[in-house]
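EI: anyone free to look at a 493-residue chain?
SC: sure, send it
EI:
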Amino acid sequence: MPGQLQKQGKGPRGGPKPGSGPAPVGGSNPNEKFWKIPSSEKDGDVLDIKVEDITPNPFNDREMGDLTHLAESIAEDGLMSEINVMHSKKFAEHYPDAASGITTKYVVAFGERRWRATRMVGHPTIAAVLRNDIVPRIRRILFAENFHRKQLLPVEEAREFHRLQTEENLSIREIVAELKLSGPGYVSGRLKLLSLPDALQRIVGTEDGPGVSMAREIARKLETPDDMVRVWELVRTNDVSLKEALRRFHSGDIPEPEGGVPEPRKTGELEPQPADAEAEVPAADAKTPEVTQSGNDKPEEKEVPVGGPESEVAKDEKEPEKPKAQSSTGKQRSAADREASQRSHASADREMTCQNMVAQAFTLSPEQTAALFARALLAPTQQSAARARAQKWLREAGKAGFTISDTDSYFEAVLSSGNIDLVNTVTITTALAACEVRARDGRRQWDVHDAEHVRLLIDVGDHHPESSWERDQLTKYSIAFPNGDDADAQSTD
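SC: here you go
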């Protein structure tokens, strides 16, 4: 048992200092007794382990956050759910490089926050379930657990998908199943971003770079990294569509690039991808806001996380469970979860297309304009949410015209400005936002008006629907869409 082990190699107690890198696999090792696995410890056993005999998992890059409330809960009520650990020797056999600094007998598999909180309150031991069986899969399991918590840039996702393919030997469909993604098209689409030059990879999905769909088109239709950068620079600096930029490029009507591609913001500074739930509309300011006109209005904003108090287990990683026969209710829930995930990914891609359209000052035919206004005014929509989203798009595109944070005051200023061009721009952007707000509402089923909204994004914004769910909806209403990616079109996940 852990309490009977003689600890060696821990700084003042003799042997190398922590982090100096024991040699746990094979050969003569001063920590040999420490690393030895007792025959009495079997997978599934619940052990009472000294907290100092456990090391955090080097593959768990989840932010631990504030552990105060969790520690208080453990101090008052005790640990409600055991953590999971692996023997360090087993871990080192599979991941020798990652294990080079481990000098304890156990490595956390799941439950690092609970282990840290237990250590904070001064408890000498912690209950832990031994799980050597998951050692070969622990890296991808942890990535799957943390994938939806983190705000990864599209290319960061692509690199992780590539690693799962090359290091974990997972197929695209296995990656989809592991990460509970919308379908193979989402993974294959991200992987195509890796064919972009580094200068473009760094900014895809940021406000300084192209959206995912546009970036994929750039990678698909151009051969050399220099050509890709030149075409994107033409889109960025001249406010033209990708289609027009490609036409100029192939006709030779394109200048040599001046300067470099702008550096992206850090991941933590990016706005989270849109979810199905609508954002709260900013409350009106108590004082009349100061109104000033500007040509490039991008005030700093902070996102407020949505959610309530969490239990101890909810705050921690999801614990693996033994396989159970899935009930009909479970199957229904699984199908609903898949649909919700696909709708969320589709909303994120449409949001990016709408933002690009606003940034490029999109124009519509009289028929398209009339249809857009009809959908926005006659179909039930959340007008306050649409106004807030339109203001956000305009502000990020530098086309807001006024530095006013309060939504109602902003729209009043636009209407009273006498600037016909600004009024028209804000009006049509708000109509577009109203249709998008309606389409992204996960509480309702799509109808023909939602499908027509996506048709407009395809025709004007060069939108490429990637979600199999969205493609099924478009097919249902006889809306044609680009079929450039077979994996997307064939996905039935």
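EI: The longest strand covers residues 125-130.
SC: 👍
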